[in-house]
Amino acid sequence: MSDQQSNELIILRPPTVADGADLWRLAEGTGVLDTNTPYAYLLWARDFAGTSVIAEVEGEPAGFITGYRKPTDPSTLFVWQVAVDSRFRGRGLAKKMLFDLVERTADDVSRLETTVTIDNEASLALFGALARAHGTEMTRTSLFTEDLFPHQEETGEEHAAEDLYTVEPLHAPAT
Ligand SMILES: CC(C)(COP(=O)(O)OP(=O)(O)OC[C@H]1O[C@@H](n2cnc3c(N)ncnc32)[C@H](O)[C@@H]1OP(=O)(O)O)[C@@H](O)C(=O)NCCC(=O)NCCS
């Protein structure tokens, strides 16, 4: 990280509806995430702000995480999308957002789930880092296999299988 980067002001906070369009832009900008509709990000910012985070670097939207607590098991935080603008990658921003979110929800959440495609090394490294920080393992099981997604002829591109990764137990920070 350069000296200039280490001096930059980074703000991590729950998103508001005013951030909805930026969440969409950030997702779209990755070129690899399934971009949801702009409406979906507005809805997320309104109803799931407590389990989501947006990062601003020097006032610029730089990344986000969307997540929710599973209705059937509210102690599980499901992390849906993680995006960091390419200009701000490789300097720990995704890790900062993830660790911040886990800490913010620690009173209610002791387990994290996410899905990752097999080729996404950065994502695996990110959740692996969380498991290490909590002194636990990350486990993988099959979840959304390729055949569950619409066919390539319908969407224009094949969707890789999304494996389920679980990190538990997450420890509440020492007080
Ligand atoms: C995945 C993504 C969010 C990582 O953002 P980032 O801010 O660059 O990540 P960080 O700098 O916090 O790095 C987190 C970990 O991933 C590792 N990492 C980062 N980029 C990597 C890459 N391209 N290849 C391998 N590992 C990588 C880091 O070394 C770090 O691991 P460590 O703590 O063991 O050193 C970002 O690359 C991105 O937006 N990608 C496109 C969208 C996507 O794939 N999202 C994830 C699926 S939901």
Structural description of this entry:
Helices cover 31% and strands 31% of the residues. By secondary structure, it is of the alpha+beta class. The chain has a single domain, classed as Gcn5-related N-acetyltransferase (GNAT) (Aminopeptidase, 3-Layer(aba) Sandwich), CATH 3.40.630. The protein has a seven-stranded mixed beta sheet. The longest helix has 13 residues, at 121-133. The protein is globular and about 45 Å long. The two termini are 31 Å apart. The model has no long low-confidence stretch (mean pLDDT 95). Coenzyme A binds next to strand 4, helix 4 and helix 5.
Name its key features:
175 residues; alpha+beta; Aminopeptidase; seven-stranded mixed sheet; 6 helices; globular; binds coenzyme A
The CATH topology annotation reads as Aminopeptidase
Q: What is the global morphology?
A: globular
Instruction: Identify every distinct bound molecule in the structure, by name, code or SMILES.
Output: coenzyme A
Report mean pLDDT, rounded to a whole number: 95
Strand order of the largest sheet: 1-2-3-4-5-7-6
Oligomer: single chain
Could you tell me how far the N terminus lies from the C terminus, measured between alpha carbons in angstroms?
31 Å
CATH level 4 superfamily? Gcn5-related N-acetyltransferase (GNAT)
Largest sheet: 7 strands, mixed
Q: Return the domain count.
A: 1
